[in-house]
Amino acid sequence: MTRTALVTGASRGIGLGVSRALASEGWRVLLGVRTPATAPALPAAEAEPLDVASPRSIAALVERLGSRGEKLDLLVNNAGVYRTGRAELWDVNLRGPALLTRGLAPLLSDGARVVMVTSGLGRRSVQSPAFLERLDRAKTVDDLLALAEERPGDYGATKAALDRLTALFAEKLKPRRILVNAASPGWARTDMGGSGAPRSVEEGVASILWACRLGPNGPTGGVFEDGQPLA
Ligand SMILES: NC(=O)c1ccc[n+]([C@@H]2O[C@H](COP(=O)([O-])OP(=O)(O)OC[C@H]3O[C@@H](n4cnc5c(N)ncnc54)[C@H](OP(=O)(O)O)[C@@H]3O)[C@@H](O)[C@H]2O)c1
C-alpha cells in the first residue's frame, strides 16, 4: 500500500532532499510549500500551499487534508529559519510545528512517524540553566505555545524548545504507536548552512531519513544526529 508523507519546507535544501528520497522510494509526498507554482516536480508528489508562520494557513491545510480523507504515515516538520528576527524565528521554528502537529494528529495513521528537524545549536548542553528550567516546566503544547509568544532567545532556543515539544508529542502519541523524534541534519551546505558548511546536503538529509525510517521498536521522544543521541 502506498504510504503518504507531508514534508514542510519542501521547496529547497534539506526538505527538498528528504522529499526526493521518499518519492524515489515509492512514497506519495505532499510538499508543504509557500509557493506551489514553483514547487519541485517529483514523481508522486503534490504541492500543498503552507506557510508555517501563519496559523490560518496551517488550519486551512488541516481542513483540506481532513476533508479529502487523507491519512499520513509520516510528518516531517522541516521548515525553518535562522537569520531573521525573533518573531519569525519563534513563529516558524516552534509555533508552526506545534500547531501543525497538533492539527494533523487525528490524520496520522497509527504507527506513523513524526520528525522534527532540529539543530545541534538547540542541544541542552549549550542552553542556560535558567532557560532549561523554563523548558522543563513546560508540560503541555499550550505551555510551549505561550513560550513562543514570549520569544525568550534566538535560533538555538527555538530548537531547544522544539526538542521539548518533540518529547511532549512523543508521550501524547505513544498509545497510538506513533514515534516522534527530533533529528538534526548537522551543519550542511544549504542556503541556510552556506557554502562553507562541512556537510553535504545528502549527509544532512540522511540524518533526517534515519528518523523517518525507524522500525516499530525504535526510540521516541529523542534528539538525534546521524542516528546518535545529541546531548
Ligand atoms: N543547513 C544547516 O546547516 C542546518 C543545521 C541544523 C538545522 N537545520 C534545520 O534544517 C531545516 C531545513 O533547513 P535548510 O538548511 O534546508 O534551510 P533552507 O535551505 O534555508 O530552506 C528552508 C526551507 O524552509 C522553508 N520555510 C521557511 N519559512 C517558511 C514558512 N514560513 N513556511 C513554510 N516554509 C518555510 C523555505 O521555504 P521558501 O523556499 O518558501 O523560503 C525552505 O523550503 C531547518 O529547520 C533548519 O533549522 C539546518
Query: Based on the structure, what is the oligomeric state of the protein chains?
Result: single chain
The CATH topology assignment is Rossmann fold
Question: In angstroms, what is the radius of gyration?
Answer: 16 Å
Following the backbone from N to C, one meets helices and strands in this order, namely: EHEEHEHEHHHEHEE
- What is the name of the CATH architecture? 3-Layer(aba) Sandwich
Question: CA-to-CA gap between the ends?
Answer: 37 Å
Provide the domain count. Answer: 1
* Biggest sheet descriptor: 8 strands, mixed
Q: What fraction, in percent, of the residue positions are helical? A: 40-55%
Overall geometry comes to globular
Could you tell me the strand content as a percent range?
Answer: 15-25%
Secondary structure elements and their pairing?
Layout: E1 4-8, H1 13-24, E2 28-33, E3 45-49, H2 55-67, E4 72-77, H3 86-104, E5 108-117, H4 129-137, H5 141-150, H6 155-173, E6 179-184, H7 201-212, E7 223-225, E8 228-229
Parallel strand pairs: 1-2, 1-4, 2-3, 4-5, 5-6, 6-7
Antiparallel strand pairs: 7-8
Helix pairs in contact: 1-7, 2-3, 3-5, 3-6
The site of NADP nicotinamide-adenine-dinucleotide phosphate has 30 residues, from helix 1.
Description:
The radius of gyration is 16 Å and the shape is globular. The model has no long low-confidence stretch (mean pLDDT 98). The protein contains 7 helices and 8 strands. 41% of the residues lie in helices and 19% in strands. An 8-stranded mixed sheet has the order 3-2-1-4-5-6-7-8, with helices on both faces. The chain is α/β, with parallel strands linked by helices and 231 residues long. α2 (55-67) packs parallel to α3, α3 runs antiparallel to α5 and α3 runs parallel beside α6 (155-173). NADP nicotinamide-adenine-dinucleotide phosphate binds next to α1.
